[in-house]
Fold this protein.
Amino acid sequence: MSILVNKNTKLIVQGITGRDGSFHTAKMKEYGTNIVAGVSPGKGGQTVLDIPVFNTVEDAVKATGANTSIIFVPAPLAGDAILEAGNAGLELVICISEGVPTLDMIKATNYLKKKGVKLIGANCPGLITPGEALVGILPADIFKKGNVGLMSRSGTLTYLMVSLLTNAGLGQSTCVGIGGDPVAGLYFQELLQMFEDDPETEAIVLIGEIGGDAEERAAQYIKEHITKPVVAFIAGQTAPPGKRMGHAGAIISSGSGTAAEKIAAFEAVGVSVASVPMEIPDLIKQKMK
Amino acid sequence: MKIHEFQSKEIFSRYSIPVTAEKVCYTTDEVLSAVQSLGMPVVIKAQVHAGGRGKAGGVKLAKTIEEAREAANKILGMDIKGYTVKKVLVAQGVKFNAEFYVGLTIDRNSKTVVFMASSEGGVEIEEVAKENPAAIHKFSIDPDLGMTSFLARKIAFKLFSDFSLVKQAVDLFQKLYQIFMDTDASLVEINPLVITDEGKLLALDAKMNFDDNAMYRQSAIEKLNEPTEDEKKEISAKESGLTYIRLDGSIGCMVNGAGLAMATMDVIKHFGGSPANFLDIGGSSNPQKVIEAMNLLLADKNVKVIMINIFGGITRCDDVARGLIVALDEMKVDIPIVIRLSGTNAEEGLRIIAERNLPTVNSLSDAAQLAIKLCENCSEN
């Protein structure tokens, strides 16, 4: 068991012929992910790494029975790519593209919700179930199969966390990068519940950052619904207020969304918060005793 | 991205939302001639990209020519939260009997545009939110339906009992939503919206912010951008695919990914150092970016040590290493560099770095501590 992706994942890559799309298709394939099709309008009939390319997601799904799609198209086209994936009868859509306009994401998240399709991202590194499927741009060799579930608003910070976990002998069930944009697909609450329900996950790592109140909401959810141990780290504890630190979501204004408020919310519900990433493995080991 | 009140009101006017008669002025003389055509009294308002203008003394009522001259002299050139006032808006004074707040913004949790309305207008809405949150009504707008008449009516009845006002409000609310959608706004706000003595709704103030990610399709809005000197650096960095924010420390950071960049700053502070900047070289790999990033770091005279922290994913470590070598060949770098590379193609990256005998460090803790130590040595010399 694990969450969202596994050996049964049949993946489509939207934007498979682009620089990043083709590079990461090779990496995912090498990891053993079952990639059944690519989509690139106007390039239907070609192949990339022996993977058949289709003009539309619908064609790709009909021909291959795919259940998941990952999107690598440029940001101005990403909103439409998500809608197309949602319309084609998939179960899960992951959007890697960075810089998607917020109004496009409102339209996309709303449509996929109505269709009952799960969305991760945009502006995220994707996810991995070690040993089963890599659906994203995460560097595969740092992961190790195990029992820690991880969710994060940040990409590369996730990699740092995972390498710390793996080096400490703590493998992972599934690691999910949810993305740093103001409006995105699955968020902490939904993933916390999935990890709670997953028999293979024994402890959960939550990596948040400044801006918004997702962490405060997650803390409330943990208090009410989560029995498994949770540890957290909040990036941006030393960030100056009012500055947008790369992620559109990571802005502190009007005294809300600060690291201090988030840390207090977690500590109040029994979640241990690390002051630097290096403390995470020990905090988990203490909790799992 | 932010625009000025007068620019927001120009957009409002295009959608036939009633605003005050007014004129933008850059000098006291212009203010005086504006007063001639608008008539007394007038309100003179600083046009800067900062909130709390009133509190800072940047908004003044003038009932005579003398008062207008005095106010213009005082406001033009004054400093509000680090912004120098270069222009003022001279607006016709209006008699009104009630003030309201209305605004549209993005709600992360419902993943919709929300409409906010309050009878407590004319004061800072953040204060109302803190002191009396129940006084702010919030309505989530279904993206499929948009601002329907029934929703606009429902909101209007929260504020007004007079049906002639409700009808005006319905029209105004629908137009505001249209503006929000048409311009890729992230905030549209009227505070205060007033009822004039003639019983008409009027936008006395206006505020608009926009989604930076959507500016590629909003060229008319993008033209209104007036970046400060610091923001200009940040924008030129963004054009090269970098996100740069200058801080006041001495360790120049180059990191890939916003979260890791913030965590790197946190770790530097944790060990007692101070970061000189936030610099995210972003996702996709391109050696040119590294060169641009080195240029930015070296241009900051406060930077005593450069710390590079790369965790490859979509970024490939060998690309970063190659960019770094090119940068070092092209420019004179006389300060120490601490490099940490891991993830995608890290081995190849480290091999390239090793050929140049540059120091590499395994863990982030070690990198931060080494950078701090090198920094201390520099300041002693």
Remarks:
- The longest helix of chain A spans residues 102-115.
